[in-house]
Write a structure and sequence with these properties.
The protein is α+β, with helices and mostly antiparallel strands. The protein has ten helices and 14 strands. α8 packs parallel to α9 and α9 runs antiparallel to α10.
Length: about 400
């Protein structure tokens, strides 16, 4: 990743350091609410270190038992081809090595003036002047070291050291959990026959559950529709119609559910196409274009994503075109494999978003749903209309 890493402006260039760090920690803990393998978690960790610290250079170093040193497993701001190949010594003259040996964070204000630490050729090559290292403890052992670095001297304070150490502690717990998960996986492999029988039974139960869920949603939808018909207030009727649309979005997700996977997965492309087609039929004159990459996501992610799209499309159809029934709404979903994330974009060419409407829950609901899947939802400025971008992590199986 280039040294002018642009993601460090994710929270805004004027964001207070403390707020930025707290946001990064909150984002990181949300991310870990679902199990993510360590090899996919480490690049996400490096990104959140950059976002939280506001610097471009970060490292996730793991102890290499075969070589008795630290290897670069993930990072931002360094040259290409270094991840998985660059090794660093473990000694008291190296900041990372000192943190590994002492199990305490190391803060260096200016490497060029610090006699206690050796300035390596690697650091000189990248112009590093100040840095912080913190050990990652997992299972009572030092798993590795986290690093944030800057090309400017005296950038970091005790606040940065505490932020980095908290991130390291959280990562240590995640690594230990991953080890337990791997042990359980290996145990399952040793009992292949039992696992196959259990999977067959699970698939049968899943099919039955899927059938019951669709029936239950149909009953709920009928009850909501009946109650809505009995209301005379136009605004209340609209609320019931909105609730019906949300129930429909959930039902569509279950219709796309795959019962043959080890985990319940949903294909997003046909799901989004069905949502778009259904809403286009409800709002004649509005063209809804969907450009969605083929992507499998867990049901727990698909349902909130579907509700977000439903909410934004409905809002666009209702408010983006007040003087004309014609307009275009575009849905785009693209994966960013290098970041292990995906970005959902919903944009219209209408009049743009005005002041918040009294009683409107749209923005609050979209942001809440994004938070449920460890993501963020932000409204982006465009020349005409309204644009929302939802960034969320790709979980195992995606």
């Amino acid at each position: 990743m280039p040294s002018d890493f642009s993601e460090n402006t994710w929270m805004g260039e004027t964001a207070d350091k403390g707020d930025r760090q707290q946001s990064a920690l909150l984002d990181f803990t949300r991310l870990l609410a679902s199990y993510i393998p360590v090899e996919r978690l480490l690049p996400l960790t490096a990104l959140r270190l950059a976002r939280g610290s506001g610097v471009s250079h970060t490292m996730v170093l793991r102890y290499d038992g075969d070589r008795s040193n630290l290897v670069l497993e993930a990072g931002t701001g360094w040259g290409p081809g270094l991840v998985g190949t660059k090794h660093f010594p473990i000694d008291a003259n190296s900041p990372a090595g000192r943190s590994y040996l002492t199990r305490h964070a190391t803060v260096v204000g200016d490497l060029l003036c610090d006699e206690a630490h050796h300035v390596s050729a690697f650091q000189r090559e990248h112009g590093i002047r100040s840095l912080v290292d913190a050990p990652v403890l997992s299972g009572g052992m030092v798993w590795g070291v986290l690093k944030i670095a800057s090309t400017q001297p005296h950038v970091f304070t005790g606040t940065d050291a505490r932020f980095l150490q908290v991130m390291a502690n959280i990562l240590g717990v995640a690594v230990e959990r991953a080890a337990d998960h791997e042990a359980a996986r290996q145990t399952a492999q040793r009992t292949a026959k039992e696992a196959a029988a259990a999977l067959a039974e699970r698939e049968m139960r899943l099919n039955e559950l899927q059938h019951r869920m669709k029936n239950n949603l149909a009953v709920i939808a009928a009850m909501v529709q009946l109650e809505g018909h009995q209301q005379e207030d136009k605004r209340i009727k609209e609320r019931f119609n909105g609730l019906m649309a949300r129930i429909g979005a959930i039902a569509m997700a279950h219709e796309q559910l795959s019962a043959t996977q080890e985990t319940t997965m949903v294909e997003l492309a046909p799901y989004m196409d069905r949502l778009a087609g259904n809403l286009a039929l409800q709002h004649e004159g509005i063209t809804i274009l969907a450009d969605v990459e083929p992507l499998l996501v867990p049901l727990d992610q698909a349902v909130p994503l579907g509700l977000i799209v439903n909410e934004l499309l409905t809002n666009a159809a209702k408010y983006a075109f007040p003087t004309s029934a014609n307009g275009t709404v575009r849905i785009a979903l693209a994966a960013e494999p290098s970041h292990h994330e995906a970005v959902l974009t919903v944009a219209d060419d209408g009049v743009g978003m005005g002041p918040p409407r009294k009683g409107s829950l749209g923005t609050m609901l979209v942001q809440s749903l994004a938070g449920q899947i460890g993501g963020t939802a932000l409204q982006r400025p465009i020349e005409r209309g309204t644009c929302w971008k939802v960034r969320f992590p790709l979980l195992p199986g995606s």
